[in-house]
């Protein structure tokens, strides 16, 4: 169980922070960049939730919880092969599959696109597009981290599915695509 009774610790005043296993890292380390991008994505989901109701809000609540799981996954590096340790919270393939199922379910009611969608239409959709771009950045940061050290592969898959989910959710929040703002190539030449 998490217990936070002291928020200001002064432990980061020298430009370092602690991971979940106690390891100290510089605040500009790739792992901290990845954790920070995931945290920013979660905050962006909070903005989307201000404009969502019913099942859309319930999905977003699950996504926010998943992103905390992902942050916990990233906050404790994988143990070196052959070493034993206690079980750690890791993002799972089941979470990725749930996202795929939700995308398919939402997409059933939405007509196919004939152009790219511009971010906008409704406030909820615009915030979903913003969250989608932050999810893509988080994915890039986790991929960058994975190039340097071991990362749970499901973490990358989850972020890739999340951006797809947020795109389809934006269309759902735009009255199942009726209020989408479509790109008109060369419209302002």
Automatic annotation (TrEMBL):
Residues 7-172 form the Cobalamin adenosyltransferase-like domain. Pathway: Cofactor biosynthesis; adenosylcobalamin biosynthesis; adenosylcobalamin from cob(II)yrinate a,c-diamide: step 2/7. Pfam families: Cob_adeno_trans. The keyword ATP-binding applies. It comes from the Bacteria. It catalyses: 2 cob(II)yrinate a,c diamide + reduced [electron-transfer flavoprotein] + 2 ATP = 2 adenosylcob(III)yrinate a,c-diamide + 2 triphosphate + oxidized [electron-transfer flavoprotein] + 3 H(+); 2 cob(II)alamin + reduced [electron-transfer flavoprotein] + 2 ATP = 2 adenosylcob(III)alamin + 2 triphosphate + oxidized [electron-transfer flavoprotein] + 3 H(+). Transmembrane segments: none annotated. It is an enzyme of class 2 (transferase). Its EC number is 2.5.1.17. Residues 1-25 are annotated as: Disordered. GO terms for molecular function: corrinoid adenosyltransferase activity. InterPro entries: CblAdoTrfase-like, CblAdoTrfase-like_sf, PduO-typ. Keywords: ATP-binding, Cobalamin biosynthesis, Nucleotide-binding, Transferase. NCBIfam families: PduO_Nterm. Belongs to the Cob(I)alamin adenosyltransferase family. This is Corrinoid adenosyltransferase. It comes from Roseomonas elaeocarpi.
């Amino acid at each position: 169980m998490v217990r936070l009774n002291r928020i200001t610790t002064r432990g980061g005043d020298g430009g370092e922070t602690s991971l979940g296993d106690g390891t100290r890292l510089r605040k500009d380390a790739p792992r901290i960049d990845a954790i920070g991008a995931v945290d920013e994505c979660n905050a962006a989901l909070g903005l989307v939730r201000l404009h969502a109701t019913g099942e859309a809000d319930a999905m977003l609540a699950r996504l926010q919880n998943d992103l905390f799981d992902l942050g916990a996954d990233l906050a404790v590096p994988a143990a070196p092969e052959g070493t034993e340790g206690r079980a750690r919270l890791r993002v799972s393939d089941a979470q990725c599959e749930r996202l795929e199922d939700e995308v398919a379910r939402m997409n059933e009611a939405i007509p196919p696109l004939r152009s790219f969608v511009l971010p906008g239409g409704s406030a909820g959709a615009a915030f979903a597009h913003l969250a989608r771009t932050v999810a893509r950045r988080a994915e890039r940061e986790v991929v960058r981290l994975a190039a340097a050290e071991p990362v749970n592969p499901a973490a990358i898959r989850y972020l890739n599915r999340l951006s797809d989910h947020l795109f389809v959710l934006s269309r759902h929040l735009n009255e199942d695509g009726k209020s989408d703002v479509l790109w008109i190539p060369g419209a302002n030449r």
